From TrEMBL:
CDD domains: RNase_PH_bact. It comes from Palleronia pelagia. PANTHER family: EXOSOME COMPLEX COMPONENT, EXOSOME COMPLEX COMPONENT RRP41. InterPro entries: ExoRNase_PH_dom1 (IPR001247), ExoRNase_PH_dom2 (IPR015847), ExoRNase_PH_dom2_sf (IPR036345), PNPase/RNase_PH_dom_sf (IPR027408), Ribosomal_Su5_D2-typ_SF (IPR020568), RNase_PH (IPR050080), RNase_PH_bac-type (IPR002381), RNase_PH_CS (IPR018336). This is Ribonuclease PH.
Amino acid sequence: MRPSGRNLDTMRPISIETDVTRHAEGSCLIKCGDTHVLCTASLEERVPPFLRNTGQGWVTAEYGMLPRATHTRMNREAKRGQSGRTQEIQRLIGRSLRACVDRNALGERQITVDCDVIQADGGTRCASITGGWVALRLAVNKLMKAGDIVTDPLTDHVAAVSCGVYAGQNVLDLDYPEDSEAGVDGNFILTGAKRLIEVQMSAEGATFTREQMNGLLDLAEKGVDELVAAQKNAVA
């Protein structure tokens, strides 16, 4: 039995509320169970130096956790400096979102997706990627409505979910009690067409088999199907 009482292949409740901030070109509050992340997409008419005069755009991301997003208070990273974990996660978010962006169609402009964890209960990077895509979609919609771009630069959905081996069984969408005790922990980032963007898997307490890995991927595909459906509802 999972601590939450969920079935092995059951996701936590998912909700995505859009347009939650006034100034950002795209924004949403995504809730995956008790993990809540505010995602905003900000448009800038500039690109990094290595893309100047190329006609190509750029999508990047930043990630952070509020001091009391977890059980005990953390010092703000503005005070103590960014951790290696934060840098790794925000690079992952940026890579994942760029995987389904036609940067030529976007034109020479940058969209920065900020993901701020309000409350953490496992799977914050996955929620950030899933919600980040929604914020990005909304920002692109504004560009297209204004006539600044004529071809949709987003080629597919991007969503992410965690899967792992808990108490010897493959489970979908780990919350913190499961994540902290999982023998195998994995993050799966997929497109709406179920093409893999990135897989992060590690044995925390024991090694795993190819059969177990395939089973976790099957669970991830099921979870991503549900996340993409929630994204479609949010931006409809």
